[in-house]
Write a structure and sequence with these properties.
The chain is an all-alpha fold and 81 residues long. The protein has 5 helices and no strands.
């Protein structure tokens, strides 16, 4: 998609790999009941919907923020040029 729009790493100031990992980590921050992973965790752990929202959503938010922080660190320390 970025190639079709003519976006390059020089325009962004970072490599496109880091942009993709930042987008992917942002998708993990908020889970809801329309996520299939939510229902897998809910049914496999025998939790109610409320219990799963309280636990699974917090866990995925921590995972998303951690992966975003790691992406920022790697983009600063290992700039792929």
């Amino acid at each position: 998609m970025f190639a079709a729009m003519g976006i390059t790493s020089e325009m962004l100031g970072c490599h496109l790999v880091y942009l993709a990992t930042a987008i992917c980590s942002g998708s993990l921050v908020g889970d809801w009941m329309n996520d299939s992973g939510f229902w897998v965790v809910a049914r496999m752990s025998v939790l109610t919907e409320i219990e799963t929202l309280k636990s699974f959503t917090i866990i995925t938010a921590v995972v998303g923020m951690t992966s975003f922080a790691v992406t920022l660190v790697f983009a600063r320390l290992l700039p792929l040029t």
